[in-house]
Amino acid sequence: MSRIVLCVDDDPDDRELIRNAIFKVDPSYTVVYATNGKEALQYLSLQDGKDLPCLVILDINMPVMDGKQTLIELARLELRNNVGIKNRSSLAVGKDAFEPISDLDANAAVARGRQ
Question: How many domains is the chain built from?
Answer without folding.
Answer: 1
